[in-house]
Amino acid sequence: MVEQTDPDCIFCRIVRGEFGTAFVAESDTAVAIRDIQPQAPTHVLVVPRRHLRSLDEVKSEDRQLAGDLLALAAQVARQEGIVESGYRVLTNNGPDAGQTVFHLHFHVLGGRRLSGGLG
Ligand code: AMP
Ligand code: ZN
Fold it and tell me: Among this protein's residues, is 105 annotated catalytic?
């Protein structure tokens, strides 16, 4: 059984409302928060309420959660008014990808021309 929450995890604490962080959007399974160090005019993180370390822990039985996360990312983009101009959704998985917070999250980036490269 995967742990549902980690008392030392910053995103678990944000999800629990410990810091009063505003949720840009939320669903039964996830919340969306503004990145503390935004890399674009819109930089929102879609964070599952449940603690999963990274995409690597998402299994087939989590398919509903995975769908919910992407649907919430798309909702955030609509709310932010960046659908027409375009936006990027990504997750960093592990050290080589530069993951720094080990609680799964999707970045929603937009509001400026993003670089063409993927790494
Ligand atoms: P990653 O490198 O993919 O793990 O992304 C982690 C992201 O979380 C970074 O873009 C950080 O700026 C962001 N971040 C870290 N702490 C917080 C926080 N307390 N509130 C909002 N964003 C945060
Ligand atoms: Zn966590």
Answer: yes
Give CA–CA dist 39/112, Å, rounded.
10
Number of continuous H segments (helices) and E segments (strands) in the chain: 2, 5
| Residue ranges around ligand 1 (CB below 6 Å) | 10, 33, 35-37, 45, 92, 98-101
Q: 27 C-alpha vs ligand 2 centroid, how far in Å?
A: 17
Compute the distance from residue 81 Cα to the ligand 1 centre, in Å. Answer: 22
Query: d(Cα 102, Cα 54) in Å, to the nearest integer?
Result: 6
pLDDT tens-digit series, residues 53-109: 999 999 999 999 999 999 999 999 999 999 999 999 999 999 999 999 999 999 999
Q: Letter for the amino acid at 26? A: E
Three-class SS state of 81? coil
> Buried b vs exposed e over 45-83: b needs ≥16 C-beta within 10 Å?
bbbbbbbbbbbeebeeebeebbebbeebbebbbeebebe
Q: Is the pTM of this model over 0.90?
A: yes
